[in-house]
Amino acid sequence: MNYAILGRLLGVVVCVLFLVTAYLYNFAVFCRWRSSTSSVRMALFADPQMEGDTKLLRERWTGWLDLKFNDYYTRHIVRTIHHKTRPTHVGYMGDIFSYQWLNKQEFGRRVERFRWVSGQTDGDGNFLSPSVSVVNVSGNHDIGYGQDVNPRYLRQWEQAFGAVNYQSMLTVANNSRTQRMVVLNTQNLDKSHDKNLQNDTWSFLQQVVKEHWKQRFSNPVILLMHIPLYKPEGVCMDPPSTLLNQRGEVIRQNMLPEWVSKYILYCLRPTVIITGHDHEGCRVQHTVVTQEAYHSYNPQLESWCQSPWEQLESGMASIDHFFQLSFKNIPISAKPLKTVSAKRIWEISHYSAPEITMRSVMGDYGGNAGLFEITALDATRFTYRYQDCPLGHHLIVRVVLIADILVGVAVLAFVICYTLLPTTWHQFTAVSTDPKKEH
């Protein structure tokens, strides 16, 4: 064997692995903010779905290794994005956990793991800057769908992650108008078992709508929620699907029903919508289509927006009975996002809003993060941008890590043979040129 060639080959492999490994540790440098003046910068992560005891019971030590890798994989993504982009906000778009029926002990263990993964521990594992605001959106694997949501699961989640429904105001530099960030629990908007909890969500939503109408939509709404709005088949990866139990409660759904989607678009009229749930991701521009002009204040539409949610759900107060409104969904790829002014939002016939359904941060979907930023164009206008920032498929990362270890061992053996055992090494690598010594 020609060990000189082996050494050169090993050198090439080391160089290639060095470049690939360097990329994995610095992938976020390719995902910089598009505007140097954006003052609201959100790093968002969708559907980590952290597993736990069930996987350990099913897979034993291989499950334990998988959990460890997934925790480190997700932590690496969050930490790298945090250090390289320095966001003002970090958000998790629901399904933080993989299973909603967790006892108190297992829930506590997963919360501690999540805090370590997200850099929110009190010890050495903390990397999250104190100035960064954390936004947690509840998902169906966190508190359940309509048939599952109950006070115990909801209270348990809120104690660890904050309220499932709330709003806060975002200040954008060089602009007099604040942004209204609305976090909405979409798991019990439609056909829920616990009517009191469903009423809490609808009361919150209708109160925000009431405030928004009173201010004539002067403050843009950034809507963060888990389950995406309704879209017809062919727009995103999967067609709309809802499964109900015998009591008519939601067992599973991949999109909100059309009536809830209409309510959000016609009444809340968000400027930008960001969701999770659909692991593949999807980008859509929702545009309201009218048969007649609505160019001024419409008291009938405002009254419909404040109808009892029970009537909205049952269809007794269907908007189609009063107004010739509909909305169309067009896939988008525009940068920056196409948004409309407060005046056009007020005149609903001109209303249009982008919905970003984020691709999952899970390894099977490339470890994706999302960067959302708001920039003031002048004293009254804004621009909004969103970009995906994936690390890479988890199998690629695993192969690179294993290759790093194996090549590291090979390089170490190469160095030991060359430096510590020079006589033996030269005996192996020497090539005789004297034919008399050849036998």
From TrEMBL:
The chain crosses the membrane at residues 6-25, 395-421. GO terms for cellular component: endoplasmic reticulum; membrane. The keyword Kinase does not apply. Pfam families: Metallophos. It is found in: Membrane. GO terms for biological process: GPI anchor biosynthetic process. This is Calcineurin-like phosphoesterase domain-containing protein. The lineage of its organism: Eukaryota, Fungi, Fungi incertae sedis, Zoopagomycota, Kickxellomycotina.
